[in-house]
Design goal:
heterodimer; A: mainly alpha; MetI-like fold; 0% strand; B: mainly alpha; 8 helices; globular
Chain lengths: 222, 216
């Protein structure tokens, strides 16, 4: 054994860990937004009557869900410059996260939309509700409630996935950890501390998501 | 730019071998520990429940990449002289056991309570009750989610590349650096992962649909 832990060397770099954490949160939220947009557009296309609109979306979902994020981010990182698009690593990472999360979001949102039965919508109209109210109260809110648990746990997973973005040198917590490690050689201490920070971030996110759910979706269904 | 010839493809397939091996080890090791975690999670003893739920929360709440780093350097600190291979295999086993434990906890709880009560009424012990009555049914219920996690695990082994382990993705990276053909190489690597994961995903969702129909 004989190894002396030295967490001091890590705590000296606390500001870097702080900014790295903000980078992680920034990547996560931007990625989530993009994933939501892709998810909603994807579901609209996925439920289209035209086969040629549906098929590419189905293929997109299958390919993204059955290949590793690391391979996806490398592919995007090298493909964009070939298409004449030069972006910094952070933006590239957000695009990769959005595409990855978007594929999962399409599947989750589709499940929610399909969970609304036609009879329920007809019942809404029969009660004399406006079209907008039917959409808001009979379609949107129950659908959101149905997808909320899977969508938010997918978001927590996306936040943890941001750590892989260190591979293209995006600015986030893991890349900060790797810089500190190469300066201090305190590998275990650095990664142990950073793992704890990730645990705090994901626990906070889960707590906030649960609070939102309790205040917004807290109504009886039967 | 260099050509992608037989040698390059062979190197990538060598990487594939390690990817498959890592996934198999993680799945089997994770399966063995996962059963224990699931049993602890559903046991009468409060301490076992608390400890196992903490274990699950820890592994589900932190990135797999960090788990790899911590175990990789942690094992070295213990003074055990192991190669990268063993450290990475341990990390995947721990990771998989937490996720499989949580999946199987759900399946054990999904087995109707009457089954446990009937087993108790027949005078069966805990071991026999679990082994002969509850777990066989739970296993069937858990199949779609278990296969789904296997796909996640196979994709997850790609992160061993960042720790410096030469599996499929790292092999692709090396060839990409040699030949300056990143798109072709990562395209090939992606297709290989897809060819492994896609059939598995389909088996999983097929089982899920069949079970949903049977439940109706």
């Amino acid at each position: 054994m004989g190894y002396r832990f030295d967490f001091g060397a890590v705590f000296d770099r606390a500001p870097e860990l702080f900014w790295g954490s903000l980078g992680t949160l920034g990547l996560a939220f931007a990625g989530m937004l993009l994933a939501l947009v892709i998810g909603i557009l994807g579901v609209a296309a996925r439920t289209s009557k035209t086969r040629w609109v549906r098929a590419p979306v189905i293929a997109f979902v299958e390919v993204v869900r059955n290949t590793p994020f690391l391979v996806q981010i490398f592919f995007i990182y090298f493909a964009l410059p070939l298409m004449g698009i030069r972006l910094n690593p952070t933006v590239t990472a957000i695009i990769a996260l959005g595409i990855n999360g978007g594929a999962y979001a399409i599947e989750i949102i589709r499940g929610g939309v399909e969970s609304i039965s036609k009879g329920q919508i007809e019942a809404g109209f029969a009660l004399g509700l406006h079209k907008a109210d039917v959409f808001r109260l009979v379609v949107l809110k129950p659908a959101l409630r149905a997808i909320y648990p899977s969508l938010t746990s997918q978001f927590v997973m996306l936040t943890l996935t941001t750590s892989v973005c260190t591979s293209i040198a995006a600015y986030e917590l893991t890349s900060a950890a790797q810089r500190i490690e190469s300066d201090t050689f305190r590998s275990f201490e650095v990664y142990f501390t950073v793992t704890a920070i990730y645990l705090v971030i994901s626990s906070l996110m889960m707590g906030i998501f649960a609070l939102i759910s309790r205040s917004y979706f807290n109504y009886p269904t039967r | 730019m260099g050509p992608i010839g037989e040698n390059e493809l062979f190197f990538i397939l060598q990487g594939l071998k390690w990817t498959v091996l890592l996934a198999v080890i993680g799945f089997i090791g994770g399966g063995v520990f996962g059963i224990l975690i699931a049993l602890a999670r559903t046991s009468k003893h409060q301490f076992a429940r608390l400890a196992s739920s903490g274990y699950i929360a820890l592994f589900q709440g932190t990135p797999l990449l960090m788990q790899l780093f911590v175990v990789y350097y942690g094992v070295a600190l213990l003074g055990i002289d192991v190669n990268a291979w063993v450290a990475v295999a341990i990390a995947f086993t721990l990771h998989a056991s937490a996720f499989l434990g949580e999946i199987w906890r759900g399946s054990i709880e999904a087995v109707p309570k009457g089954q446990t009560e009937a087993a108790n009424a027949l005078g069966l012990h805990y071991v026999s009750r679990m082994k002969d009555v509850v777990l066989p049914q739970a296993l069937k219920i858990s199949m779609p989610a278990t296969i789904g996690f296997l796909v996640q695990l196979i994709k997850g082994t790609s992160l061993a590349a960042i720790v410096g382990f030469i599996e499929l993705t790292r092999a692709g990276q090396i060839i990409s650096n040699q030949t300056y053909r990143p798109l072709l190489v990562f395209g090939i690597v992606g297709i290989i992962y897809f060819m492994i994961c896609w059939p598995l995903s389909h088996v999983g969702s097929g089982l899920e649909k069949r079970m949903a129909k049977a439940a109706r």
